[in-house]
Amino acid sequence: MEPEATSMDWERLLSKQRLGRPDEEGSLGFRTDFQRDFDRIVFSSAFRRLQDKTQVFPLAESDYVRTRLTHSLEVSCVGRSLGTRVGEAITRREGYTEVAPGDIGAIVAAACLAHDIGNPPFGHAGEDAIRHWVRTSPVARRALDELSPPQRAEFEHFEGNAQGFRVVTRLQNPDNRGGLQLTYATLGAALKYPCPAHAIDPGYGISRKKYGYFVAEADLFRAVAQTNGLLKQAPRTYCRHPLAFVMEAADNIAYLIVDFEDAFRLGILEYRTVHDHFRALLRGKDQGTVERRLARLRDDKERVEYLRARAINELVEASARAFMDHEAEIMTGRFERELTDTLPFSEALRAIAGVSQERIYDHLEVQGVCAAGYSVIGGLLDLFHEAVHDTAVALEEGKQAPPRSRTVTNLVPEQFLYQYDPDSGRRYRVTDPYLLLLNLTDFIAGMTDGYAVSLYKKLTGMALPHHG
């Protein structure tokens, strides 16, 4: 028996093999395997729905403000640049001839593109709304009583990251084993939290602050971890793929900087505040050059855009250096911090995060709509779980469910009610309590903000079609 590895290997970490498709035909000349990952995510319905999902400002009327879709695209751009910079150092040192720096950039870009694909309506408030429903709803209490402790933990700590892994490996193209059948390298880079819900341990470090997969996808997760050669840390728990740190840094850079820009455009932050905080990230640059460029621009909007671009570039370069500085610890699974926390100007980033929390995320308009999200998501979960549960029990007992339950259940798309067996071509109504709740969560989490609000209003009688 071979001894367990003590360090990861870049050749395995950059695996082009596809989940669920070991006989993949390989690259198509004009597109690399990792570029194909990017394209598969872009063309997925789950990615398109991000255009009407909250980034920071829910249901924003301004067409300038970022949604989850524009945020994900911007993160992927930052990730491509950052990944390519890291790739230059790695491929040069390793002497790779078949792996280019741009391949590593493409892996990170694809992982960034998928990083929010599992988020429910109303952004992070939507995640907490599901957890709140689990804690407070009698309907949820009955549902969780039928689950095992590891299964209950998944809903008590509901996590968009785990939902995202489920989306790309199972829910998109559900008739394929492996869903979108992305490469193992891209899936590994997208796994920020390579542990199950019952193994969450913030005291351990950043990789176990949350969880990254559901029990239902345990076999798919294990395939990703083992093929990439991730180091095992505990039962069903592994260290991060090194490029997950790069993906995380790209996300941090994008939201810390562009949330400031959005807040300025909405009049929440004044120009001087944005200027001073962005300039703090450029202290090592030629002060005169920056100030002369700012003076030539016609208005504060363009000045903010210029400073935003310069700040992002500076953070990308610094994060690439930080990754290489800490690579030895990362490759042995001993690094448990965010890359952006190790940067020379991490204090300036923390100042930006502090202002963002106080003046943007706690803004009355943001909090007001997020609060409404608790009612919408909790209300939908109550209505649909009760109905779907009643009809499933009635089916098992050979009885007829109450008319209200049948009517509400008819509003749930069949893909969330039935399990399809591709071998027999038959489909079966889902009655297992865990899968029933998981499928219903898939339905709710996949909704856009607008659809969730519209459906809730219809089901509660606040908005009905009227002719006449």
Automatic annotation (TrEMBL):
It comes from the Bacteria. It is an enzyme of class 3 (hydrolase). InterPro entries: dGTP_triP_hydro_central_sf, dGTP_triphosphohydrolase_C, dGTPase, dGTPase-like, HD/PDEase_dom, HD_domain. GO terms for molecular function: dGTPase activity. Keywords: Hydrolase. Its EC number is 3.1.5.1. Residues 68-256 form the HD domain. One of its GO terms (biological process) is dGTP catabolic process. The keyword Hydrolase applies. SMART domains: HDc (SM00471). The keyword Coiled coil does not apply. This is Putative deoxyguanosinetriphosphate triphosphohydrolase. It comes from Alkalilimnicola ehrlichii (strain ATCC BAA-1101 / DSM 17681 / MLHE-1).
